[in-house]
Design a protein that fits this description.
- The chain has 303 residues and is α+β, with helices and mostly antiparallel strands.
- It has a seven-stranded antiparallel beta sheet. Strands 7-8 form a two-stranded antiparallel sheet.
- It starts with 7 loop residues before the first helix and ends in a 7-residue tail after the last helix.
Length: 303
């Protein structure tokens, strides 16, 4: 029998470890906001707003349970409808103020679906992805190389390629016909088909979560001092609109949280604080803004 209590300490320790490092980097503390879910479970939201570096950031831990799987979790697994569930995970989104520093997302999670007289169905999921505004190829290659190193011990090049390609497909705005950013890793349902044992699935999930700091912090350490002006901030706000669109329309984690009665403030902490939309805007040809679209918002083998 899979006991979620045996893996919960790793998730809570991961949250604390990441927050401690981010506080040291930013210089200001993250607020700690514990919450309880009426239907069962709760979590701890760690959030920073108007930091010295981060305009907004959050690192959430949640552990929830209930009597019926939400629609977002059963849309591609209808056989699990009506089962009791237990879910836990760590999810983070960081929005730097400096437009030369990319937004980043990381999530690692565990689900188990339970029914009387039937074996439990469990799985892990997770990944991380980078969303730059004014990219540097060095940074993108570093991020992807770190992601690749995290996956290689769990299936080699084929498994890395699978998770990298899955990320490119998942973080894609179909209504815009463009990716949200430059990708990274994504996986879901790992273990649900019985082909991956628990230790391997949990090991890969741990490796991805543990790799986050090495993947992201060297990038922002390099770029945090770059000067910027209103033009760069304006474009950053415009591109942040794509982030909002994806999270509210497509993101499984957002939909699961809202449909399962999760804490709305914690779920929507992923939203950037300043966002702009403009009608049918196009970047000036050969401009730094156009370079994002022409060179970086494409599926590429960055590692």
């Amino acid at each position: 029998m899979i006991d979620p209590a045996t893996i919960k300490p790793w998730f809570t320790e991961l949250q604390q470890r990441i927050v401690s490092r981010l506080e040291s980097f930013d210089g200001k503390p993250f607020k700690a906001d514990g919450w309880d879910r009426p239907g069962g479970g709760g979590g701890l939201t760690r959030v920073i707003e108007e930091g010295d570096f981060f305009e907004r950031g959050g690192v959430n831990f949640s552990h929830v349970m209930g009597d019926g799987m939400p629609a977002s979790a059963t849309a591609h697994r209808p056989e699990l409808a009506g089962r009791r569930f237990e879910a836990m995970g760590v999810s983070l989104v960081l929005h730097p103020r400096n437009p030369y520093c990319p937004t980043v997302h990381m999530n690692v999670r565990f689900f188990v679906a339970l029914a009387e007289g039937k074996p439990p169905v469990w799985w892990f999921g997770g990944g991380m992805d980078l969303t730059p505004y004014y990219p540097f190829e060095q940074d993108i290659r570093h991020f992807h190389a770190t992601c690749k190193a995290a996956v290689l011990p769990f299936g080699g090049e084929p498994e890395y390629r699978r998770l990298k390609d899955w990320c490119d497909r998942y973080f894609f705005l179909k209504h815009r016909n463009e990716p949200r950013g430059v990708g990274g890793l994504f996986f879901d349902d790992l273990g649900a088909d019985g082909k991956t044992d628990f230790d391997t699935a949990f090991g890969l999930t741990q490796s991805v979560g543990n790799a986050f700091q090495d993947a992201y912090l060297p990038i922002v350490e390099r770029r945090r001092g770059l000067p910027y002006g209103e033009r760069e901030r304006d474009f950053q706000a415009y591109r942040r609109g794509r982030y909002v669109e994806f999270n509210l329309v497509f993101d499984r984690g957002t939909l699961f949280g809202l449909q399962s009665g999760g804490r709305t403030e914690s779920i929507l902490m992923s939203m950037p604080p300043i966002v702009k939309w403009r009608y049918d805007w196009k970047p000036e040809p050969h401009s730094p803004e156009a370079e994002l679209y022409d060179k970086y918002l494409v599926a590429a083998d960055w590692a």
